[in-house]
């Protein structure tokens, strides 16, 4: 029996459960996702679904064993997590990201991604191009944000395996007496590059959408008991050994808002899929993302506070 499940199809039979992922277009990143998951599956450093079959020919698909557990996508689902587990869940969330960034690229063979590593200025230009195709960049405030980001790009730091879309909906959890990450999903945006880009994107989904009405993305900071994102950054700094200043993170927070805005607009597709963000439509989400991106670059991240 087949049923639609996120980016893939759930396939059940004979007591076995799989997820079939098929290529949507030439830019869906399925080859990258397949390569990263295959490499990490052998390394056993970051848990990923087991790939049981693949086809890199014209049809481009792979079949992975479905991981049992809980995925937290919406505010309703976030609210079902027992309150005494929420703090631990937040710290496991960031500890898992530290593990991703600590993957040995040479040992796993993922050093091949270094050939496609894009600098922050190139990445910024790609985001601008995607928003331009969606007809968003005509807004003066958005162009102002792009110009400010381009003029203040941080110096290159260490290069790590970067997930590219690190958020709660891309993690399978075991929620019992001990909170545990069972698998990290959706590696189609994975690359090698600056690790703080992942933190910037994660902030948007953890706290940056607080108060923005939509039917797709839950916001942990809107719920009692989850750590603030400032606490998660402190945890990341402690576990990774990377010193992170608030001024430094302002750039990455602002960039994260733009990256998410571009993806909501359809990653460059000509017809922005408004259904992805609920009945309020694309504009209702893009407007606060741009506004908060500008505020972030000015060092104003009020939405990192957790609801206590």
UniProtKB/TrEMBL annotation:
Transmembrane segments: none annotated. InterPro entries: ACAD10_11_N, AGP_Transferase, Aminoglycoside_PTrfase, Kinase-like_dom_sf. Residues 9-207 form the Aminoglycoside phosphotransferase domain. This is Aminoglycoside phosphotransferase domain-containing protein. It comes from Rhodococcus opacus (Nocardia opaca). The lineage of its organism: Bacteria, Bacillati, Actinomycetota, Actinomycetes, Mycobacteriales.
């Amino acid at each position: 029996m087949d049923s639609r499940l996120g980016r893939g199809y759930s396939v059940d039979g004979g007591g076995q459960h799989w997820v079939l992922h098929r290529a949507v277009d030439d830019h869906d990143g399925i080859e990258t996702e397949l390569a990263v998951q295959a490499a990490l599956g052998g390394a056993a450093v970051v848990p990923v679904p087991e790939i049981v079959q693949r086809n890199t020919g014209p049809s481009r698909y792979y079949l992975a064993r479905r991981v049992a557990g809980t995925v937290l996508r919406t505010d309703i689902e976030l609210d079902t997590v027992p309150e005494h587990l929420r703090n631990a869940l937040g710290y496991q969330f960031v500890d898992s990201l530290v593990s991703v960034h600590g993957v040995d690229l040479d040992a796993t063979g993922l050093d091949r991604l270094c050939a496609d590593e894009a600098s922050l200025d190139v990445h910024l230009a790609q985001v601008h191009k995607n928003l331009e195709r969606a007809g968003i960049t005509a807004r003066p405030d958005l162009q102002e944000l792009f110009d400010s980001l381009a003029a203040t790009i941080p110096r290159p730091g260490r290069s790590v395996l970067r997930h590219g879309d690190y958020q709660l909906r891309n993690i399978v959890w075991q929620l019992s007496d001990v909170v545990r990450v069972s698998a990290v999903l959706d590696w189609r945006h994975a690359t090698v590059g600056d690790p703080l880009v992942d933190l910037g994107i994660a902030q948007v989904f953890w706290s940056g959408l607080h108060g923005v009405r939509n039917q797709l993305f839950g916001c942990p900071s809107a719920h009692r008991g989850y750590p603030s994102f400032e606490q998660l950054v402190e945890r990341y700094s402690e576990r990774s050994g990377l010193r992170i200043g608030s001024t430094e993170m302002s750039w990455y927070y602002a960039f994260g808002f733009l990256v998410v805005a571009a993806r909501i607009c359809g990653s460059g597709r000509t017809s922005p899929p408004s259904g992805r963000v609920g009945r309020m439509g694309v504009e209702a989400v893009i407007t606060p993302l741009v506004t908060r991106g500008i505020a972030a670059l000015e060092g104003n991240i009020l939405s990192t506070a957790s609801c206590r």
